[in-house]
Amino acid sequence: MIIVIDALNKQDFPAILDDMFRLRARVFGDRLGWEVEIKNGQEKDKFDALDPAYVIGLDDDGHVVSCVRALQTTGPHMLSDVFSSILHGEPPLRSATVWESTRFCVDTQRLGRGTAPNSVSYATCELMIGSLEYARRSGIKDIVTVIDPVMDRVLKRSDNAPYGYVGKTTPMGKVPAMAALLDCSQERIDRVRNFAGIQGEVFADEARLRETQRVRFDAAKMPASSIRDNLFEYLREQFHAAGSDEERNAVERLAAQLHASAALTTSSPVMDNRIH
């Protein structure tokens, strides 16, 4: 599922943003070896301070598995300020209806191969669809993105081939780079959907996701002793609701393990593990 986080809702999803910046650090810093700035395990650059929009893919457990950044071309952006050599003297693109897409990445460590919903291919295509649909709904006509030949092949293979390129292919560190153009047409979106077999809404229910994030945040702040107390109370309820000796014995074993774990990890008195 996809969520878009921008200046209007970023205060509601700080954990997702932190997870996204950590994914970028693992991909661009650790895996690809780019010269990027990483602090506290997160990769950020000066363009992240401009309140861009982030299109972010989440798995069923709410973990970030993919992301891409969308930035207006009317102000500073990477093609004009960082990768200007690709333009070979041409003026940078400046248009309210052309946005730049950068930092596209997928968590290959968490995802598997193949085309299933928890695969790299599925997450890649879902992120493409989410990016194009978000841009289209926002009145964006075209996307410009700096890519390498590998990503160029990925776009072509997923029936999302660029309709053109800006400037020339230029060496950038270990790999050549090019600036590709993608229109945000419904036809393009349909092609990627058909290729990936993705139908229906790809965007998450933002209100439900916001509540999920709030519950997780509150749980993270809860003292460990309170969590243990809640778990013991839950086990008591399960014991009395058990329908057989086998189920009651299983609950007792869990209570004993929880009690032993609490005794090892705290110096304060722990709750009695008796649940009868």
Structure explained in plain terms:
The structure is a single chain. Helix content is 42%, strand content 20%. It has helices at residues 14-31, 78-81, 120-137, 149-157, 186-196, 206-221, 224-241, 245-265, and strands at residues 2-5, 38-39, 42-43, 53-58, 64-72, 98-106, 142-147, 164-172, 175-183. Strand 6, helix 3 (120-137) and strand 7 (142-147) form a beta-alpha-beta unit. The longest helix has 21 residues, at 245-265. Residues 266-271 have low confidence and may be disordered.
Please outline what is shown here:
With 276 residues, this protein is an alpha+beta fold. It has 2 domains: 2-215, Gcn5-related N-acetyltransferase (GNAT) (Aminopeptidase), CATH 3.40.630.30; 223-265.
Order of helices and strands: EHEEEEHEHEHEEHHHH
* Cα shape: elongated
Specify the CATH class of the largest domain: Alpha Beta
Provide the CATH superfamily of the largest domain. Answer: Gcn5-related N-acetyltransferase (GNAT)
Q: Kindly report the spatial arrangement of strands forming the biggest sheet.
A: 1-4-5-6-7-9-8
What is the name of the CATH topology of the largest domain? Aminopeptidase
> In this structure, how is the largest beta sheet organized?
7 strands, mixed
Q: Could you tell me how far the N terminus lies from the C terminus, measured between alpha carbons in angstroms?
A: 43 Å
Radius of gyration: 24 Å
Describe how the helices and strands are arranged.
Elements: E1 2-5, H1 14-31, E2 38-39, E3 42-43, E4 53-58, E5 64-72, H2 78-81, E6 98-106, H3 120-137, E7 142-147, H4 149-157, E8 164-172, E9 175-183, H5 186-196, H6 206-221, H7 224-241, H8 245-265
Parallel strand pairs: 6-7
Antiparallel strand pairs: 1-4, 2-3, 4-5, 5-6, 7-9, 8-9
